[in-house]
Amino acid sequence: MLRSAVPVAIAGIIGLAAISHRLLRHCLTSSKYQTHKPQSQDKNPNKAGCTEPEAMMSNSNGIDVLDNLLNTRIKLLQDPQCLVKVAQAGMSNSNAFDALEWRKPILGNVVEALGDHNTHLIGVYGSDDAIKDALLEKVYRRVQRDKMFGMVVRASITKYPDMRKIQENIATQLGLTFNQKSKDKRALELIHRIKNKQSILIVLGDLCKGFELSKVGIPYGADHTGCKVLLTSTSEDVLSTHMHTQKNFMV
């Protein structure tokens, strides 16, 4: 899809920009030397002849702007990533994810990792939040379709994680009302409720730094083999070094 879109994008950029540049430059340069309206008959010398200099200044600036646009177009064409962005313009996040051939196997790889009994902590990283969100949505639809988990819980982790809010978010989706006020005791309540789920997927997005899942109240691995955790971040280091993910996938 992208392979066919890029040549179109290139042709559009080169053709339209070049034509519009020549036409507009011609119009502006022509108008610069056209005979202007007679000077005002107003006796005030400050008003007389003011139209012509303003028009010439406007035209001169317009030519400069077009020259800058042309130079920018050349620079854009020298950067392949810019062509990708142009080709993706107007696409939905989901279509943008599918547009790059190398991304297509990632969905299958993530789903395969989720089905691996020996893998409990999986990471997805990349700089484009929209692409990561599109992948998560596809993963969600796939696991729902294939009935891989009895329940899927999703929560966003901000730059400065508020553990209490994260606990409340997860508890709400689990239908749990906390009886305790302290974070540690709430974590125990969450652990107990999650362990009652034979199979559950917990998706935590937008990690900026590491934290202990047990302090939130998420059991996994030896504590609960039926619980899988899928994490997303812009940094692979956050996932592998601080969260100790077993498998990571770049998007």
Q: How do the strands and helices of this protein lay out in sequence?
A:
Elements: H1 2-32, H2 51-77, H3 80-88, H4 93-99, H5 104-115, E1 121-125, H6 129-146, E2 151-156, H7 163-174, H8 183-195, E3 200-207, H9 213-216, E4 227-233, H10 236-242, E5 247-250
Helix pairs in contact: 1-2, 1-3, 4-6, 5-6, 7-8
Main sheet makeup:
5 strands, parallel
Main structural class: alpha/beta
* CATH fold descriptor of the largest domain: Rossmann fold
Which runs of at least 5 residues are low in confidence (pLDDT < 50)? 1-11, 31-58, 87-91
Please indicate the count of domains: 2
Strand order of the largest sheet: 2-3-4-1-5
Strand content: 5-15%
Outline type = globular
Based on the coordinates given, report the CATH architecture of the largest domain.
3-Layer(aba) Sandwich
Described by its quaternary structure, the protein is: single chain
InterPro entries: NB-ARC (IPR002182), P-loop_NTPase (IPR027417), Plant_NBS-LRR (IPR050905)
GO molecular function: ADP binding
Domain NB-ARC: 108-248
Keywords: Plant defense
What does the model show?
The model is unreliable at 1-11, 31-58 and 87-91 (pLDDT under 50). This protein has 2 domains: 2-89; 94-250, P-loop containing nucleotide triphosphate hydrolases (Rossmann fold, 3-Layer(aba) Sandwich), CATH 3.40.50. It contains 10 helices and 5 strands. The radius of gyration is 29 Å and the shape is globular. The chain has a 5-stranded parallel β-sheet, with helices on both faces. Helix content is 56%, strand content 12%. The two termini are 18 Å apart. The chain has 251 residues and is α/β, with parallel strands linked by helices. Helix 1 (2-32) runs antiparallel to helix 2 and helix 4 packs across helix 6 (129-146).
